[in-house]
């Protein structure tokens, strides 16, 4: 009897103690929905576009935080994506053109998704995250394959991705013609492309982005079914509005061609660097695009229409993914970030496509939403200078993960609580001699000189020689010359110098005053030597010297 009383007393004490000190279940780490878009400049309603029809982007911006002044580290696919995914800048990882695979140059670097994988996340992606195909870095960066087995739709896999038979034939014909004329390496240089655009009455899933959006949704559902308590990092990469501009007809029909206004600032900057602009190589490689001379207005309007149709097409896929997240009931524990890898010229400064050091090519849309961000910062726009390389440390901080030591970005998580907080003094981008590089940013091949681009290259070379005089050196300008752009609150400052021999003096400066000249129409460096000196001192401090004080 005495023993039973002791046991009963002990049980009561334990029960009371458990009531006093309840066990806490560890909170589940937040999911990450990582929405990547290719070649999208801020041509979005929420960013002030008067023509773009983007209801899903706009809705997201009204719920989260939009960055007005976000910049890529290099305005071309591979360097930009390698930089943001490794959290290090292009020259640090030795990726400044599209043909260097970041993992070959950096076998042991820990990528963003790899870091989350190493910290217990299920990591997976569909579509384009790295520049390489879907299998890129599968072993290290990703923990699983997408849920292909859950898909009832098959990828189209048509020649060139085109829906229309005539465009498929044009694509095959263009490739065959350049191989016959310039040899089997011509396609590697981007030659032999089909039409630049297509309007076809097909379902969203016929083109790769629509398919990849459905695959991302199926994959999310599969992860939640198999591992409901495990956080996920899901990357969904949209290829459009990258060339070629292929979009279902219904997205073209959203726009009245007569309402589409063309670029108004169509001249190269006055006194600007002649090596700073290219001859629109990437667009001209497409079937039906003039190989020399300006793009006439009628064709330019069709091309911009095609770009806008693709923007609306991508907007719809983003909307489907976010709606699926809501329907799955996991949005209240998911961080969503939307970004583009670089900007894009649509006739601005007289050229088309990316690959320059100017505002239109380096400024990108960047938006973020978190479940616990303050109500008074939802729908707000921040003017703080931020960079794509900042996303890695930001997501680490928001998810409560330690930041790897190699990171060269700076977390903008504090801006979610105070979007007007004093922030970086400058953002940095770079691009090697656009005029004398192929659009993959690699040095001009002899094959390129032997094609229809030869006369264009000679024409721009003559302009560079005339401007640079005795500073002209073919090896330097084609292989080692880098344009470094520093964007401050009020200025864009571009320093052209030898990136191999960093101690040499800059060859040329460009300075644009965004208070009076947001279109960057006139280089005012020569008439402002003291300001150039001041900005050069700031530039020489590098990214570390321009962090928030």
Question: Could you characterize what this model shows?
Answer:
The structure is a single chain. With 549 residues, the chain is α/β, with parallel strands linked by helices. Helices cover 33% and strands 16% of the residues. It is built from 17 helices and 16 strands. The strands form 4 sheets. Strands 1, 2, 3, 5, 7, 10, 11 and 12 form an 8-stranded mixed β-sheet that branches. Helix 8 runs parallel beside helix 11 (297-327). The chain is globular and about 65 Å long. The model is unreliable at 1-25 (pLDDT under 50).
> What is the first-to-last residue Cα distance?
72 Å
The oligomeric state is: single chain
Tell me which CATH architecture applies here: 3-Layer(aba) Sandwich
Tell me the structural class: alpha/beta
Question: Averaged pLDDT, please?
Answer: 93
Strand content: 15-25%
Number of helices: 17
Query: How much helicity do the residues have?
Result: 25-40%
For the biggest sheet, the summary is: 8 strands, mixed
- What is the CATH C-level name? Alpha Beta
Brief write-up:
The chain is of the alpha/beta class. It is built from 17 helices and 16 strands.
Layout of helices and strands:
Elements: H1 2-20, E1 31-37, H2 55-63, E2 65-71, H3 77-86, H4 102-105, H5 112-118, E3 122-127, H6 138-141, H7 165-182, E4 197-200, H8 208-226, E5 232-238, E6 245-248, H9 249-252, H10 281-284, H11 297-327, E7 334-340, E8 345-346, E9 352-353, H12 359-362, E10 363-364, E11 366-369, E12 380-387, H13 391-399, E13 427-432, H14 446-450, H15 454-468, H16 474-480, E14 481-487, E15 491-498, E16 508-513, H17 529-540
Parallel strand pairs: 1-5, 1-7, 2-12, 3-5, 4-6
Antiparallel strand pairs: 2-10, 2-11, 7-11, 8-9, 13-14, 14-15, 15-16
Helix pairs in contact: 8-11
